[in-house]
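Colleagues,

Please find the record for the two-part complex below.
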Amino acid sequence: MEMTDLANAVIAGDRRALARAITRVESARADHRAEAVDLVAQARAAGRQALRIGLSGTPGVGKSTFIEAFGMMLVAQGLRVAVLAVDPSSARSGGSILGDKTRMERLSRDPAAFIRPSPSQAQMGGVARRTREAVALCEAAGFDVVLVETVGVGQSETVVAEICDLFILLLAPAGGDELQGVKRGIMEMADLILVNKADGDLKPAAQRTRADYAGALHLLRRRPQDPEGFPKALCVSAIEDSGLTEAWADMQRLAGWRKANGHWQSRRAHQARHWFGEEVRQGLLSVLDREPAKGSMAALGARVEAGDLSPEAAATQMLALLGRA
Amino acid sequence: MEMTDLANAVIAGDRRALARAITRVESARADHRAEAVDLVAQARAAGRQALRIGLSGTPGVGKSTFIEAFGMMLVAQGLRVAVLAVDPSSARSGGSILGDKTRMERLSRDPAAFIRPSPSQAQMGGVARRTREAVALCEAAGFDVVLVETVGVGQSETVVAEICDLFILLLAPAGGDELQGVKRGIMEMADLILVNKADGDLKPAAQRTRADYAGALHLLRRRPQDPEGFPKALCVSAIEDSGLTEAWADMQRLAGWRKANGHWQSRRAHQARHWFGEEVRQGLLSVLDREPAKGSMAALGARVEAGDLSPEAAATQMLALLGRA
């Protein structure tokens, strides 16, 4: 299928075409890459925008259950929902967070929803580009909400925050001493902290955890792009379906406020500029992954390891070989 | 002064020459850079090796007081000690950790010691290279121990660990709930955890903190490059001069074990290869900081921000301009 036909099918809302288009942007083949750039350009030209929500949470907080319940609630309101996963660790574990679709059984079967697991063998640079392009394809396909989920591993939250309009941190109830387990940087990125499992025996612990995080958020400086009261911590229960409506209302309120105040558009503009820089840097460095540079790097690296050559002298030689002395 | 003369003066142990040589490796000027590479190559050719000790600790743990007491103990044993700082945040704060030499009054006046603060306006990439080269210069100048200190900011610990033979984490006494405040990655890099201020009222708290960290270290897998019992947590008091002899004995034991088992040399070999790769990557990317690429990046970046051009299309144009389509 020609890229134009594929792009048109995506824009017409053909789910199989969307799946095929995402497979194309995931491909590492050079000819596929050129096609992917073409495809994404045509998708962007449709000019559609979804609400992009980044969702981070470590394993065990109930991410799949939350996405199932939250997604079904949005679908019940007539919204179309796409779910993408960013999982840089899948290369190691061999599996992906969303690989087990049975954990989101209802949502994965709903015609208004589209769920796409993380590709295996992905590196962070590749994951960032693939996710960004998959988001653009989902937007072109007319989805109203694109959820991008990530586990709290390495740089993945930063990547997701640089792709999304809102960033949500999902937590499980815990003792107060676990507060510090959340990296400060992630707290600072979060627009909304949702304490999941606020049901049954865990409800009091969830409420305490919420209060702890609300206190911690209060200590962080309010950001100019936020209305009064944000960032905010709420209790939710995915299995009891409670708090989800409130959380969604807050997300809409925040998004609306940012749109009205110009922060929405300027955030997207800054993100685009950031990714432009990343693409250029990745492109410059990619020469090192191809022959003959790859072989020279290995040969010079071996001499540096053996102590025959200093790191600086070897680097000078390598840059000269690349015509960049 | 010619670089050869300067290198010879450094190797002869001339402290003013060493200070001037470090200033040269810190310079951002292109002609100075070529001279610095020459200088470091000559310094390395002297074939001297010091024990390189990385020391990390957040503000308030008593780093300066510890370095003063620990350094004076080494000097009293007839050893020559150099202290270098890695402080990527100094660009922002305008000051450097070791800027206030009065906090190490005795050590800074001792002829067997050499203290060099972090340069201002340093970026992480530049800091890493400058520190690596300054360490090589100190080794050439005949110092037996080179202490590289860093505050726990961003990537600086990883940089220091990639430069040093041993990595020490300095902590203050604290409640057990603060254990998680230390990033897991830093715990995993530490060969020795020293709980400072184990004196007076704080002694019981220091002992508890030591036990907490000893327990946490026990949970981490023992590394093949370590003898039985390492990594280890100890109490020290810089103001009472207690525990320092024991800490130094452990450092020597660990270093001796690694040397006898070949881990020492293989670690230095891996570090050299790592820095070779970093130098090449920095060199490739440095084109973006110079005209005409810098101007093109700004112009294309502005169009991406304005929405005239997608990040991918702009990156393709930029890479074409760089002859790397």
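The first strand of chain B starts at residue 51 and ends at 56.

Comments are welcome before we finalize the supplementary table.
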